[in-house]
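Weekly puzzle thread! Below is a chain. First person to post its structure in token form gets bragging rights.
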Amino acid sequence: MKLVVVSAGLSVPSSTRLLADRLAAVAAPAATAPEPAPADVRVIELRDLAVEIAHTFTSGFPAPALADAFAEVAAADGLIVVTPVFSASYSGLFKSFFDALGVTDEDALTGKPVLIAATGGTARHSLVLEHALRPLFAYLKAVIVPTGVYAASEDWGAEGLDARIGRAATELAALMAGLSGPSRASGPSTGRPLPKRDSFEEVTPFAERLAALSVPGPSPAP
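Winning reply:
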């Protein structure tokens, strides 16, 4: 079982990467329990791919290192995604990575469990999980873990953060274990769920809908 962590932290050391590592440390063994071997964890640092992400939008295809990261995400049984908060939302680098991924494979996250998390300088931005990250991954057809984790500067070392990390990571592990079972519908080569048909592609003409209602037309003039 594979767990992929996407961290959009820019500094070294990074509180965003620290939060990502603490979530993975709980989720990896829980996803394979009671087996002693934890899930295989792959960490993707977006700051190392920033130039390649930008070039993807002008060239139309990813460079090798970015293509490898996309392949890791597509093959994952679960994702942990963590971004710093900029201007009350996710960072541009974070959004650009998933935009570029969608251009390459629009169904890469379909049916995949995703734990959303963010870091910021103040607790006033904690709703970024609900108004920015959750809608983004809902649009990408991911299965979003109910509990998201936001860590402000004052949360580190304070009571409560460990409990939120444990709860969210355990929920992700449960989804990974459930969705990676033999009954999960999968594609022929990637192991990902088959993309569902988009109902918006089949639009019934309005004239047909009126005809189906058998609405009588105006009476002819005497």
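Puzzle host: Confirmed. Bonus trivia for everyone else. Strands lie at 2-7, 40-45, 78-86, 89-90, 113-120, 143-144, 149-152.
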